[in-house]
Write a structure and sequence with these properties.
The protein is an alpha+beta fold. The protein is built from 14 helices and 15 strands. The chain has a 7-stranded antiparallel beta sheet, with helices on both faces. It comes from Streptosporangium carneum. This is Dehydrogenase. InterPro entries: Bacteriocin_Proc_Enz, Nitroreductase, Nitroreductase-like, SagB-type_dehydrogenase.
């Protein structure tokens, strides 16, 4: 009889959890019908046993190498590790190798998060359903977190509520939107800033969610209407607003001064010397107030929803900016810890996630952003494999 060979999983994470050393193969398939925890507690002997399967081996070979242990107990331990997904057979290794080849450019952090949060169960009496139920939240969550953040002692700039009309046809705004990197240097009007911030961050309505408290409804969708995203604005060249770093108070539609000395040099440093960010008239930094999401959703998959919400918010900003005559961009390239510090947040209860900005754009003859040429005669081969040198600095136009 052919002896089954095993190898230690290459998608294995080991970490401390609640005082126990815990191991998990994040690539292990999860049922979408029955709840199961892929993570298992392991002891020193289990870790030592895994070391014997760095390369392909059989139960019999390992049992012989561990002569001080009963062969039957070694076999039971090996099969338990295989059942937990910590050891894989040849079939499992083929699946693992296909995955590692497809994801070879991304590190362990992205792999663990994406595959470790797959196949969460959302039906019936599942853990995720129970944890999102309003009654369960009320019984275990305490007081709902505040939906608005404010700096009550900070100097304020109250923004006008006479907004620019968004009367352009939607299709025109949608197709006119491009990522802009070159700006004229003209000051953005107060009305343009006010309109862009209001329709991006401010509530359109308030919603009585019962046990979950009062929630805001923005123009952008957000899982559970948690709206965990806050806006901070670096004002660089806006009419009637002193330059500096502000928090946008969504309830009062006002800018609250955080740092009057924040300038382009600071922005240049925080955004890795970006030639797109620094010339902007204003830049919005988007943070996550994690408690707003965690209060209702207490499963790691909820972080996916927060990331999606940030994308929704960014799209609303760039479309609104386009509609009021601005050129906008969005990026995630910044020095996280330094930017957290600049905003005055700790990175744990609230941390920076995204940024976008705008200015008066420089347009080319065709209406495209300056420096971008509309394709004419195109070699189909170049649509498949384009040399990096052919892509404009900073990436494709978007």
């Amino acid at each position: 009889m052919t002896q089954t060979e095993f190898r230690r999983a290459q998608t294995l994470m080991i970490y401390w959890h609640d005082g126990e050393l815990t191991a998990e193969n994040y690539l292990e398939s999860r049922s979408t019908d029955a709840e199961a925890d892929n993570a298992v507690a392991v002891d020193a002997q289990a870790v030592e046993l895994l070391e014997h399967f760095t390369d392909w081996s059989t139960v019999e070979k390992v049992a012989a190498a561990l002569g001080e242990f009963d062969a039957a107990s070694v076999r039971d331990a090996v099969l338990a590790l295989a059942d937990a997904g910590l050891l894989v057979d040849r079939t499992g290794a083929q699946r693992e190798e296909r995955f590692l080849e497809a994801w070879h450019d991304w590190g362990e952090e992205a792999r663990f998060f994406h595959f470790g949060t797959r196949n969460t169960i959302y039906t019936g009496d599942s853990l995720e359903q129970r944890r999102a139920d309003a009654r369960w939240v009320r019984e275990t969550g305490g007081t709902p977190p505040a939906i608005f953040k404010s700096y009550p002692d900070a100097p304020r700039v109250y923004l006008p509520r006479t907004f620019l009309p968004l009367t352009d046809q939607f299709g025109q705004v949608l197709t006119r939107r491009r990522t802009h990197r070159v700006f004229t240097g003209e000051a953005v009007s107060l009305a343009q800033l006010s309109t862009a911030l209001f329709y991006t961050f401010a509530p359109m309505q308030l919603y009585d969610a019962g046990d979950l408290g009062t929630l805001m409804l923005r123009t952008s969708p957000c899982g559970g209407a948690r709206h965990e995203l806050e806006g901070y604005v670096a004002v660089l060249d806006v009419q009637d607003v002193p330059p500096g770093l502000y928090h946008y108070n969504a309830e009062a539609h006002a800018l609250e001064l955080v740092d009057p000395d924040f300038d382009r040099a600071r922005l240049h440093r925080l955004t890795y010397e970006s030639e797109m960010c620094t010339p902007s008239a204003f830049v919005c930094f988007v943070t996550v107030v994690f408690e707003r999401t965690m209060y209702k959703y207490r499963h790691s998959r909820a972080l996916r929803v927060t990331l999606l919400s940030a994308g929704h918010l960014g799209q609303t900003f760039v479309l609104t900016s386009t509609a009021v005559g601005l050129g906008a961009w969005q990026s995630a390239a910044f020095r996280d810890e330094e930017l957290d510090e600049a905003l005055g947040v700790d990175g744990f209860s609230e941390g920076v996630l995204y940024m976008f900005g705008a200015g008066v754009p420089v347009l080319g003859e065709t209406g495209m952003p300056a420096g971008i040429t509309r394709a004419r005669l195109t070699d189909p081969g170049r649509l498949v494999a384009t040399h990096p040198a052919d892509v404009p600095a900073g990436g494709a136009a978007g």
